[in-house]
Amino acid sequence: MSLTQGVELAAGDRSGEAAGGLYRDALRRLRRSPTAIVGATLVLLFVFVAVFAPLLAPYSPTAVDLTDIRPGVFPGPSAEHPLGLDQLGRDELSRIIYGARYSLLIGVVSLSLGASVGLALGLIAGAFGGWVDSLVMRGVDIMLAVPSLLLAIGVAALLGPRLISVMIAIAVVNVPIFARLLRGSMLAQRRSDYALAARSLGVTRSRIVLQHVFPNSLAPVIVQGTLALATAIIEAAGLAFLGLGSPDPAIPEWGRMLAETNAFLASAPLLALWPGLAIVLSVMGFYLLGEALREALDPKLRR
Amino acid sequence: MTGPAADSLTTASPREAVPGEARAEPLLKIRDLTVTFSSRGRATVRAVDGVNLDVAAGSTVGIVGESGSGKSVTSLAAMGLLGRRGVEVSGSVDFDGSDLLHMPEQELRAVRGREIAMIFQDPMSSLNPVLTVGRQITEILVRHRGLSGREARDRAAELLNSVGIGDSLRRLKSFPHQLSGGMRQRVMIAMALACAPRLLIADEPTTALDVTISAQILELLRRLVVDTQTALVLITHDLGVVAGLCDTVHVMYSGRIVESAPRRPLFADPRHPYTTGLLASVPRLDAPRSVPLLPIPGSPSDTLPWARGCAFSPRCTRQVDACLGAPPVLEPLEPSSHLLRCVNPVPPEKSLG
Amino acid sequence: MLKFAVRRLLLLVPILLGLSILVFLFVRALPGGPETALLGERLTPERAAAVRAAYGLDRPVYEQYVSYMGKVAKLDFGVSIQSQRPVSEEIGRRFPATVELATFAILFAILVGIPLGFVAGRRPNSWLDNFSTVGSLIGIAIPVFALGFLLKYVFAVKLGWLPGTGRQDVRITTEHPTGFFVLDGLLTGDLPAAWDAVKHLILPAIALGTIPLAIITRITRAAVLETSNEDFVRTAEAKGMTRQIVTRRHILRNALLPVVTIIGLQTGLLLSGAILTETVFAFGGMGSFMADALFSRDFPVIQGGILFLAVVFVVVNLLVDISYGFIDPRVRTS
Q: By C-alpha distance, which of C276, C141, C281, C112 is closest to C211?
């Protein structure tokens, strides 16, 4: 999980304050941050392409144009096909555009699945503490002790080669990360002065946790969520490369499109470039946005 | 230097009286020091605005003001410690005949720590957490005195002894986090005095410490300064700290000196409403119980640009029409060692204290 | 410090027990057991039952688990279905390759990343800073296998400067006493063999090391920027220390603390990346070995390999934490 590491470092010292103020402040700072603007632009472009793929794509991603196709010859960019045709004579641009849908779908589904399970575990551990905390956290330790891609491969192997397996596999990788993040953040919040003050005023524990500690602990989770979307795209590509994606070759999935080009890299290097570029730009967008969010939500930098 | 038109609304006039001006050539002579901070997307801030200041050898000078008054920035600018980005420093800082502001960096680094030393507010963050205090003291001796290994260590132990840290050879091996706050500030003082500097600048040296510890630290500073004939510039927001220590006191507000006098006249006969406000807001053990503490209304951010009148006027209880329009000038009173920048000063008999 | 290490090692016991149970159940839940892997086309119910009996899979799961753990305690992980050789032997053969690859990758990341991040942090917004920012962004965003292909295509296929597959030229028949090919070459005095192994490592190590490189660069830059504004750096300047001492002794030493943490966290990431890198470069290490085992349902290898990797992972993290204590006195003495 390459993109997650700074988050927990930053999560340790969130001081207690009205959560609303924190987020309002963050939004104000985001608008001034060039990192946020570039990241958000890339992300919006990606989401726009994914949502409106049928309107934007000139052809169907599965339609085959065999007029110029001969074995070993890949027609490059032309007026009809701006990015050329792939090895089976399909319009590369349309496949890239439709590919955004699958990347977004995989990212969103795996994030919501993984984050909701992870956050529930983290909330339980952080709210109850004691042996519940120990139990949950040992489980998290166990999951984290397995290299994430191996874990994903295992889950995908267990569930068989289907698109949903990839989503669940990446979701499983996200579970321990979110659980540990929220729990650590809540622990820091519970020890904070304002939680102590609330307790001394006689506010009940469940009220403190749900109304104060939990909302204030969410900042690093939001950052992690953004970064998890970036990671999902990369991991989906890795799984596709290992042959664990959807079995249907018609599905224009960027990771597989890129992996498949390995066989004819020498004759059509551009066919590797397009999906590679699509992956790099969309990952970069989520990553930049996540970085900007982390900076904007860091109370140490508030002014 | 220039005509009245340029004698101007933005910087203090060079013809203004110089606070603490000494008859003999002073050790430190600050003239027309101006510091502006600018950062992208924000208005530039003039933190120090044409400050003139003399410090005679061996004397003790206090600079007093609230946070944001420019007192710390003055000292950092004089030492060239403000960094380069977004900072503009002008004027001159003459130390024993050479201008620190225009000195080549190499030379300035040789002056810092050897001729002029500094002590900062928070001894925890001001000490390097991953080096032993011994290393942090000896590195100065190695750098400026050319001592090596054993000599440096022995000298460092002596220094720790002289600032009241016992068992000093063992203490040299401690890390900052293993010492108490008072001890850490003693270490800072030992570091500052390592090369017997001629000038010591102490920037809020006791603000981060407990009251009892801070009294000890002040007493230590006073004794060392007297013993070693070091000139001391003491920067603080606490007039109580100044009262026991300084020969001369300068009161700063919004980047300019507003009142400046030897210690006795300043406390006995403060004339600037800001000074009387500071004095009235300090609790005093010797005051009758019926005298209430009077906070200065407003906050240090309620200022007027000096160009449009007295910066303190928005918070001033004695504000009159003459306060607005043009900046007041720093002028000598009787006796001439007492300078004041105010058009409607507190009358002598009404002063507190 | 010793107490800390012992406590951490004890904490490892429940993690490994839990993990072993989970892996054990996981392997038995995999669709298509070892009979599919072994028999393939020749699969009949009778033959399948025979295979399952031969591997003890017909007994109750808890019985299987107890007898398995009894063997594991004696470091017997069973026999690989694919190769019919002991799993421990197979791991012993592949693990050095991955360690070698990961070591070169992390060395590459550290040796390039820390200086680059340092210079970028000292001169923010300089051309070098912008270059390193954009470069590390691309490094983070590019899939490991795609970078592997690119490197292989340019430097092995097109330019022919470096080998693109394997660990050593097949014509080299030197002894391998340790399994670390570079080390073996040096130990047996066969320097050309060692150099050949190094050449085989360069491209995979760059592919695998690029993400850690990008992360180390960014963390170093941020840490240097932050440390430069610390009060103690101002103190060092006020003490008249030379620029060099201020930078090295005061800024760099403190800025390296978060960098060390990040380097430690890269271990798990390296093992993930190794699966892809080893596949691209046919490198024959643990990563591709484990991926293959999962595909072929080689359950003794899956069980033993995951347990082994988990131990490695936890031990490496422990070592990083201990080394952290040596750099940061606040951790050491509290």
A: C141
Convert the pLDDT of each residue in C72-114 to its tens digit: 888 888 888 888 889 888 898 889 999 999 999 999 999 999 9
Q: What is the dihedral of CA A10, A13, A15, A20, to 10 degrees?
A: 20
Q: Find which of A109-118, B68-77, C163-172 is predicted with most confidence, using mean pLDDT.
A: A109-118
Read off the tokens for B138: 């000896």
What residues of chain A, 134 to 153, have a C-beta less than 8 Å from chain C?
Answer: 138-139, 141-142, 144-150, 153
Instruction: Compare CB distances from A258 to C146, C265, C268 and report the shortest one's residue.
Output: C146
Q: Is C234 on the interface with B (CB under 8 A)?
A: yes
For residue B45, give the H/E element and its range: strand B45-55
The pTM assigned to this predicted structure is 0.82
Band (pLDDT 50/70/90 cuts) for residue A109 is very high
- B residues 58-77 near C, CB within 8 Å? 76
CB distance A242 to A51 below 8 Å: no
CB-based contact C146 A276, cutoff 8 Å: yes
Q: Measured between CB atoms, does A258 come within 8 Å of chain C?
A: yes
ipTM metric: 0.83
Q: What's the pLDDT tens digit per position in C108-135?
A: 999 999 999 999 988 888 899 889 988 9
Lowest model confidence (mean pLDDT) among A201-215, B93-107, B140-154: A201-215
Angular region, B295: left φ>0, alpha ψ -120 to 50, beta rest: beta
Using CA coordinates, name the residue in chain C closest to A275.
C146
At B98, is the secondary structure helix, strand, or coil? strand
CA–CA separation, A117 and A111 (whole Å)? 10
Residue numbers in B near C241 (CB within 8 A): 109, 113, 139-140, 143
